[in-house]
Specification:
Blueprint (H helix, E strand, L loop, with lengths): L1 E10 L2 E11 L4 E5 L6 H9 L6 E6 L5 E4 L11 H5 L4 H12 L5 H11 L3 H14 L16 H15 L3 E5 L7 H12 L4 E5 L3 H7 L2 E6 L2 E6 L2 H36 L6 H13 L26 E12 L2 E12 L3 E5 L6 H9 L6 E6 L5 E4 L13 H6 L7 H10 L16 H14 L4 E5 L7 H13 L3 E5 L3 H7 L2 E6 L2 E5 L3 H8 L27 H48 L9 H30 L1
Length: about 625
């Protein structure tokens, strides 16, 4: 499918690739990894033809279609979300733009519409809607202009377009940065059955472990292929580096011995020829390069926060709602010193709300929040980025911490989070969202609070930066509550788990593996959004709420179930009416297509076929919805 042969690329004195060659087959699932700045995105651009190589070739077989998702995409124009998702060819965009400028029902308008119909968009739309729904778009979003969306949602819409298009080679550059956990799980499952090849840059270990069968590592201007997923790559890489290091040291010893002989005897007439022979032997050797240095975590002493009392924070009988949507009622929670707790549960269950309540970022509507003795709260979320001073340089922002550190220490930590060389003199205002996020982390970790609350801290961080953050948090002596979809990060940090669902908190007095065992989860990542605890519905550990609160919650749950059952009955009746209407329409359209007179009117058969396809697809969706509602009533 794709052959890269003897590819080389340099920028001035810096060489990114030298003599790189590899093949990508039709069924390959490949993860591309390497340090920041090693050339991963540059390699993508060379493959796509956006950059010229210094040497070598890139060749595709059988005119394979290539789809590419970059890390950032410019905002779209006037097209809707659904229009973008069905734009499987640039011609479609051109035709749509032309259609907007033409007089409706004019001859030119009909000619353009006819050409647009040839793309059979009515067949693509149902597929696009299913994919958009998987990426968390609501039906009401389908007709929204993409120009009104945030950058993250625009990326999702472009990702949907690629999945609808189904190119033979799908090239993805950090595709999960803008996905929430449930969309990420859907996306991971969808890619398992993707019909083409996938070449992906990602820092998501779990995604690489579940999806890829090979890892391409960019190291020392070459690409080394490892068979297996990311965990297999880590093991093989360590073994390879040990072997390379041993071979390198042995060769260096041999070169040193030969050089010493030549230096000692080159001045003696009787030994001069032998000395010259030793020098030539050194020249003829195929030199073994020293192995690349393994990624290191930060290696300096983090300033530790003052010790708190045993009770760090307490929420008592808290009531919290967003308008008519009740999140918590009668919530009771006690956080104790030294806990490292990950919050898990379905989207919308209240994980982020709980962090905000504990941080004091939102006021408690009912009940109380109390902090313990000497507690200093630190809250890391997206709005934290806005607290940076846009007019300062990166280095100045770090040096202005309330717990000052020396410039050398500041540079060392910044380097761990990918601010290297002249990067530290960049203005904060010109940093990307990911760079601002990393800078906020550096400031937080250099002056750590003793009660740290973090919402998705690994987003936008590469592998080395995640390791740096893990290294920092392992040294951290305070209390930590966090939300994350990174299973590797959770396993490295969390010592307890707090499950949140339907306003109820269930603590697990063990690490993430303990939670998986007790909850009988089907997958590590799926367990992050699980809505129930044990298979039989019982909590795995004693719940936090009091008995009185528990009885009230149970009564509310019964009432909610009754209400949901009534709503399902109403929805099923509506679906059955819709199904009957569409089935009647299907029979009518089929009868018209069977009538010979239909074919005497130009364009009529195509119009009827289009309507029939839409009706059939609508029926499929209605049948599936009816099935789901009927099952939930059982």
């Amino acid at each position: 499918m794709l052959t890269v042969a003897h590819l080389s690329k340099s920028y001035g004195a810096r060489t990114l690739f030298r003599g790189v060659s590899f093949h990508v087959k039709a069924s390959d699932r490949i993860g591309l990894v390497g340090p920041n700045g090693s050339g991963k995105s540059t390699l993508f651009r060379l493959i796509l033809g956006d950059l010229e190589s210094d040497e070598g070739t890139v060749a595709f077989r059988n005119r394979v279609a290539v789809g590419y998702l970059p890390q950032e995409i410019e905002p779209s124009g006037h097209e809707t979300v659904l229009e973008l998702a069905t734009t499987v060819s640039p011609e479609i965009t051109t035709l749509r733009n032309t259609l907007r400028t033409q007089q409706p029902d004019s001859e030119a308008w009909h000619a353009t519409q006819s050409r647009l119909d040839e793309w059979r968009l009515y067949e693509l739309e149902p597929k696009a809607k299913r994919i958009l729904a998987g990426l968390a778009f609501r039906q009401s979003d389908f007709q929204r202009p993409t120009g009104t969306l945030s950058g993250g949602w625009i990326m999702r819409a472009h990702l949907a377009r690629l999945l609808v298009q189904e190119p033979g080679l799908l090239m993805l550059d950090e595709p999960t940065n803008h996905l929430d956990i449930e969309s990420l799980i859907w996306f991971q499952d969808y890619l398992r059955t993707y019909p083409g090849a996938i070449l992906m840059i990602s820092h998501d270990r779990e995604l690489l472990n579940q999806l890829v069968g090979s890892i391409f590592e960019i190291a020392q201007t070459r690409i080394i292929r490892y068979r297996g997923n990311y965990d297999a790559y880590v093991t093989q890489r360590a073994m390879r580096q040990e072997q390379q290091w041993a071979a390198y040291k042995n060769q260096q010893k041999e070169i040193e011995a030969l050089q010493q002989f030549a230096d000692r005897f080159r001045a003696k007439a009787t030994k001069a020829s032998q000395a010259q022979s030793k020098l030539k032997q050194i020249e003829r050797m195929e030199k073994i390069e020293a192995p690349a240095v393994l990624d290191r975590t930060i290696a300096f002493h983090w300033p530790q926060p003052p010790r708190t009392g045993l009770k760090v924070a307490t929420l008592t009988d808290v009531h919290q709602a967003y308008g008519p949507v009740l999140v918590y009622q009668g919530l009771n929670l006690s956080v104790e010193r030294g806990q490292r707790t990950v919050l898990v549960g379905p989207n919308g269950s209240g994980k982020s709300t709980l962090l905000k309540l504990l941080a004091g970022a939102i006021p408690v509507q009912g009940g109380s929040r109390e902090l313990g003795l000497h507690v200093k709260v630190g809250y890391y979320a997206q709005h934290r980025i806005d607290m940076l001073n846009a007019g300062r340089t990166v280095l100045a922002e770090v040096l202005d911490a309330s717990h000052p550190v020396g410039e050398q220490t500041a540079r060392s930590v910044l380097g761990s989070f990918l601010f290297r060389g002249d990067d530290v003199f960049k203005r904060v205002s010109v940093l990307s969202g990911g760079e601002k996020s990393r800078l906020a982390l550096v400031k937080l970790l250099l002056n750590p609070p003793n009660f740290l609350l973090m919402d998705e801290p690994t987003t936008h961080l590469d592998m080395a930066s995640i390791e740096a953050l893990i290294g920092a948090l392992r040294q951290y002596k305070g209390t930590l509550l966090f939300i994350s979809h990174d299973v590797y990060f959770i396993r490295s940090i969390a010592t307890t788990v707090l499950h949140i669902h339907a306003g109820r908190l269930t603590p697990y007095a063990g690490n993430y593996q303990y939670y998986l065992d007790r909850s009988q989860a089907l997958s590590e990542r799926g367990a992050l959004t699980a809505g129930s605890q044990l298979a039989d519905g019982r909590p795995a550990e004693p719940g936090v709420p009091t008995r009185k609160t528990q009885r009230r919650l149970e009564a509310e749950t019964r009432q909610a179930c009754s209400k949901r059952r009534r709503e399902n009955e109403k929805k099923r009746s509506g679906l059955e009416a819709d199904i009957e209407r569409f089935e009647t329409q299907q029979k009518t359209l089929a009868a018209q297509l069977e009538n010979p007179e239909t074919y005497t009117t130009p364009g009529k058969p195509m119009e009827l076929n289009r309507e029939l396809t839409q009706v059939v697809e609508s029926l499929k969706i209605l049948y599936a919805e009816w099935d789901q509602v009927a099952t939930s009533n059982d």
